[in-house]
Specification:
Helix 2 links the parallel strand 2 and strand 3. Helices cover about 40% and strands about 15% of the residues. The chain has one domain (about 30-190): 3-Layer(aba) Sandwich (Glutaredoxin). By secondary structure, it is of the alpha/beta class. The longest helix is centred in the N-terminal third of the chain and has 21 residues, at about 5-25.
Length: about 190
């Protein structure tokens, strides 16, 4: 192989590798809310980003048979009751695991009822929205992610997975810290102009 051809192959490899990784969006504080795509809704009509203008929105991805999601359900229901108003909204996105997996709408409805979720639930059957918000690297550890969006549709808080709750359980200290961080930021965002 000629030296020139060898350099071209290396250059092509570097460019394609850099393009691949730069196309993997890593969600950051201050990013704008993206539109939702390919969603079937429960407890709601279709929701678009434009419907959320001037609202504070907590978005949580969850799945069935996930201890983190089960342990976080009470926090979500508590915030829904505490802050529920025209200015605050929770959106849950169900995503099947393992992926890919066929989603049975009625089965998801039974999970929603079991968890007492009264807020809108979008079925993200192909992880389309999860992967639009988070990179594969961010999803390598958890898929039970949460983001808080302010009234200007900017990301204000990101929880990269696992659980959060107010219960003080040994070994769950960070869960409590994360719960109160989100709780206080919801309150702050609701009182900002």
């Amino acid at each position: 192989m000629s030296h020139y051809l060898h350099k071209k192959i290396i250059w092509f490899y570097l460019v394609t590798t850099c393009c691949f990784y730069s196309c993997q969006h890593e969600l950051k504080i201050g990013d704008s809310l993206k539109d939702f795509t390919s969603v079937e809704w429960i407890n709601s009509r279709t929701i678009d980003a434009k419907d959320l203008k001037n609202k504070v929105v907590l978005i949580r991805w969850w799945t069935d048979q996930c201890d983190y999601c089960t342990n976080t359900a009470d926090a979500l229901n508590g915030w829904y009751e505490k802050f529920s108003s025209d200015s605050f909204m929770i959106i849950g996105f169900y995503h099947p695991k393992p992926f890919p997996k066929t989603v049975d709408y009625n089965e998801v409805v039974s999970y929603v009822i079991e968890k007492n979720f009264a807020f809108p639930i979008g079925i993200d059957a192909r992880w389309t929205n999860l992967k639009r918000f988070f990179s594969d690297q961010q999803l390598s550890k958890f898929t039970s992610m949460s983001i808080l969006i302010d009234r200007q549709q900017k990301v204000r808080w990101i929880h990269y997975g696992g659980e959060y709750h107010r219960d003080s359980i040994i070994g769950h200290e960070q869960c409590v810290v994360d719960f109160y961080a989100c709780d206080s930021l919801i309150f702050k965002c609701l009182h900002e102009e």
